[in-house]
# Entry
Amino acid sequence: MNNNIIADNFSLLAKLMDINGENSFKTKSYSVAAFTIEKLPAELSSIPEEKIFFIKGVGEAIGKKIIEQLHTGELSLLNEYVSKTPQGIMEMLAIKGIGPKKISVIWKELEIENLGELLYACNENRLLLYKGFGEKTQQNIKESIEYYLSNQGSYLYAQIENHAAETDTKIKNAFPLEQFELAGDLRRHLETIDKLEWITTASQQQIITFFKQQEYKIIDEDEITTKLKGKENLLLVFYHTTQEKFYQTLFEKSCSEDFLNEWKNMFPFKNSYTAEEEIFTNAGIDVIPPYLRESEKIILTAQQHKLPEVIQPKDITAIIHSHSKWSDGINTIDEMATAAIQKNLQYLVLSDHSKTAFYAQGLHEEKIIEQHKEIDELNKKYTPFKIFKSIESDILNDGSLDYSNEVLSSFDLVIASVHSNLKMKEDKAMMRLINAIENPYTSILGHPTGRLLLSRNGYPVDHKKIIDACAANNVVIELNAHPKRLDIDWRWIDYCLEKNVLISIDPDAHSVNGYNDIRYGVIAAQKAGVTKKHNLSSFSMQDFEDFIKVQHTKRP
Ligand SMILES: [Zn+2]
Ligand SMILES: [Zn+2]
# Structure
């Protein structure tokens, strides 16, 4: 064991002790020791043990720990701190702009345990409420995390779509005589992407030469596949094929395994196709777009010419679920309304945070009265456009909502969401959710699992029971359109449709720019075959007002 490793161990120990809130006098002695050892002219392993104690800045306690490391190769006190510090917290040490003291606040006070959650908190301006975190610090932390995470090789669909399109154009321009088509998870519109895949008639040599010039590294190659990585750390995969087999390969690489297996059982491939659509027409069925090639059941639907007319961004008529400056949003209600009008939308459902969400300046009762006055004024100004009064009410620990019935009845509709104590077992999560769904004031269940893609799994739920309860209580399930949430997962939406549960594609906008996220919600909904009839935020003003009337009949 050399001095550098010993010094690094002490330095990490000091940081972890700080993060765990230990007395700073104790932790300081370890960081001083790390500093001293790094600068020693001789290796500690070459110094007689009894002399180690006399090195300046070492002393009795540190000396013993040096000898322990020389003998065992380990520092047991460090192991102890490593085991009681979550992995996600340790990772924060790699982020520029946050030292151990700030990490401690993030962990113990904001109850954030990994980088994904921290990034999300930056986006929601939650850090600003804590001592030592200014706007600039928050911005630095955010950028630093984004950089770090982008180096991990997995991306949200929203993060990678432009890069994929640019790379696609670049190679098509470089090889005008060859065929290239993007396939794989991106073409299927999956919510997270860890590789970009192309089908191509270009040779392996052509691809390798081209990308080597751009400083890409070859990860793997065999006769039919080339895998490369550039500085984005994203895997690029090229499937080399002939012109004859191009569309068959494209088809095979643009669907789920279940879909492909069923297809092969039902229809043989011809030797050659001139377009991908020909594969479908040849089989006598309607063309199934790549985003629907998931469940094998869709093949039968296409055979019966019953493919759904899936929802499009233009079918969205309203912003449902949005936050203003009254809680943790960036824009005023007026600005939010104006932006919605500019987008030709018919109405806005304003749903700031409720009082328990203190980190988001959730609204106390007297603020709600004031806010409603402001909304009434704006509604006079902007009619026929309308702002509906709503709240994103926290689902409390026992599943109750955040206000008295009297206050709840002042809203046109209530969105109920879990924001606190996310770490819970399924029975606890189900108890909270079912109670909230059964509450007669709940109209929409917000982001039902609390997941943050690539950073936090949702709390465990029994999706079927949740959907059944929503069906029984006439509650709409949100499809939160934030590209990090996309919650409810599209894989559960067919069960919602089966049970006649409406979904609502909601941007959960914290600024007018947040409206743009609706597109990602629509893309996810399309994968589930959602039509505009199934989606609350596609309702006309009249239908929405009728919906609210029916919701109010549930209220006592
Ligand atoms: Zn929320
Ligand atoms: Zn929200």
Q: What stands out?
A: DSSP finds 24 helices and 14 strands in the chain.
